[in-house]
Amino acid sequence: QVQLVESGGGLVQAGGSLRLSCAASGRTFSSSGMGWFRQAPGKEREFVAGITWSGGRTSYADSVKGRFTISRDNAKNTVYLQMNSLKSEDTAVYYCAVRSGTTYAYWGQGTQVTVSS
Predict the structure, then answer these.
(1) Rounded distance, CA 56 to CA 25, Å?
(2) Mean pLDDT confidence for 100-113
(3) What is the distance between the alpha carbons of residues 115 and 88, in angstroms, rounded to a whole number?
């Protein structure tokens, strides 16, 4: 059974930083792309950042470029999202996901990030 468990969310003031982690278990994801998504209240889930299986290529939503960094440690089956210069509009539930083929097939339960202004 595949499990993705996010952690590291919380309450932070605007301008602060948080580091999210997503630990995967149940199978090895070292050959899979992984990503972070978020969903704010009343809004649709949106892509935040993605990383290839090797970590050699990353992609970001325009809204987080230059502030967020995605990385992974395949030995630990873990993907990270370093979030700096946080803004109130970054407030959302953050989800990690693993690609299978062309889609994100496995999802975590989410971790809440709240940025106070």
Answers:
(1) 22
(2) 93
(3) 5
> CA angle at residue 110 from 106 to 111, to 5 degrees?
150
CA 63 distance to own-chain centroid:
14
Task: Give the pLDDT band of residue 30 (cuts 50, 70, 90).
Answer: confident
**What contacts 101, CB < 8 A, 6 or more positions away?**
none
b/e 74-111 (16+ beta carbons within 10 angstroms → b): beebbbbbebeebeeebbbbbbbbbbeeeebebbbebb
- Identity at 115, one-letter amino acid code: V
| 3-state DSSP assignment of residue 109 | coil
CA distance 19 to 50: 15
Joined together, the tokens standing for residue 26 give 């149940």
- Half-sphere exposure of residue 39: CA atoms within 13 angstroms, side-chain side: 11
